[in-house]
């Protein structure tokens, strides 16, 4: 599944266009490597995402083509969440 689509469906980022923009600015890594919006996400991958002054590290646990709001949180597991000062 494409990175931007995963971020939208899992509701980590609300809009796919915003997810694409964040990825293309070099703020997302998959397994320690810089990722583009078209990068492929697989189960078990670790994503590191920079949101302004916050960095999130998540592990992909499920992939779905679409989800309900309550099921979206099951698609990933938060490993770490840090504030950048």
From TrEMBL:
Which keywords does UniProt give here? Protein biosynthesis, RNA-binding, rRNA-binding, tRNA-binding
Q: InterPro entries given for it?
A: RqcP, S4_RNA-bd, S4_RNA-bd_sf
Q: Which Pfam families match?
A: S4 (PF01479)
| PROSITE patterns cross-referenced by the UniProt entry | S4 (PS50889)
Coiled-coil parts of chain: none
RNA-binding S4 domain sequence ranges: 1-64
Concerning SUPFAM superfamilies, the annotation shows: Alpha-L RNA-binding motif
Q: What does this protein do?
A: Key component of the ribosome quality control system (RQC), a ribosome-associated complex that mediates the extraction of incompletely synthesized nascent chains from stalled ribosomes and their subsequent degradation. RqcH recruits Ala-charged tRNA, and with RqcP directs the elongation of stalled nascent chains on 50S ribosomal subunits, leading to non-templated C-terminal alanine extensions (Ala tail). The Ala tail promotes nascent chain degradation. RqcP is associated with the translocation-like movement of the peptidyl-tRNA from the A-site into the P-site.
The name this protein goes by in its record: RQC P-site tRNA stabilizing factor
């Amino acid at each position: 599944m494409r990175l931007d689509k995963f971020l939208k469906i899992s509701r980590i980022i609300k809009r796919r266009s915003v997810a694409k923009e964040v990825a293309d600015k070099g703020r997302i890594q998959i397994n320690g490597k810089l990722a583009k919006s078209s990068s492929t996400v697989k189960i078990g991958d670790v994503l590191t995402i920079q949101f302004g002054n916050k960095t999130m590290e998540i592990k992909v646990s499920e992939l779905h083509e679409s989800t309900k709001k309550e099921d979206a949180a099951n698609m990933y597991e938060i490993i770490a969440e840090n504030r950048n000062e």
